[in-house]
Amino acid sequence: MRISKIWPRKPFLIIASIVASSIFFAEVSAQEKIDSLKALLKNDRQDTTRVNLLIDLARELYRSGNFLTSLQTAREARALGNQPQLSKRYWQCLAGIRLRLYPEK
């Protein structure tokens, strides 16, 4: 008798625990990725690799909800990418900034 009262709740508890753990681990892995990108930026020169790292960092910051920091990072990438050999990445930075400021509805 007692087991039948608990059974309807069991699937809900299992699903709730899976969702909660996946959200927790997603946040942890996003922060780890942001930290690793910041560490790579400390050791890098002012070239294409740095611009690419800044763009990746801006994207990860945006995904984690740090919108202002993401925008600042994208602007820094745009400033560095304003060189003839980096023109493609420069325009990608501008497009990313536009999407952050004026998201499509």
Please state the CA-atom Rg, rounded to the nearest Å. 21 Å
Q: Give the oligomeric state.
A: single chain
Annotation, overall tally of beta strands: 0
Instruction: Estimate percent helicity.
Output: over 70%
Instruction: Bin the strand percentage.
Output: under 5%
How would you describe the shape? elongated
Round the mean pLDDT to the nearest integer and report it: 71
The N- to C-terminal Cα distance equals 52 Å
Overall number of structural domains = 1
- How many DSSP H or I helices? 5
List segments where confidence is low: pLDDT < 50 over at least 5 consecutive residues.
Answer: none
In brief:
This protein has 105 residues and is mostly helical. It has helices spanning 2-6, 10-42, 48-63, 67-80, 87-101.
Describe the fold and architecture.
This protein has 105 residues and is mainly α. It contains 5 helices and no strands. It has one domain. The longest helix has 33 residues. 15% of the residues are buried. The mean pLDDT is 71. This is Tetratricopeptide repeat-containing protein. It comes from Ohtaekwangia koreensis.
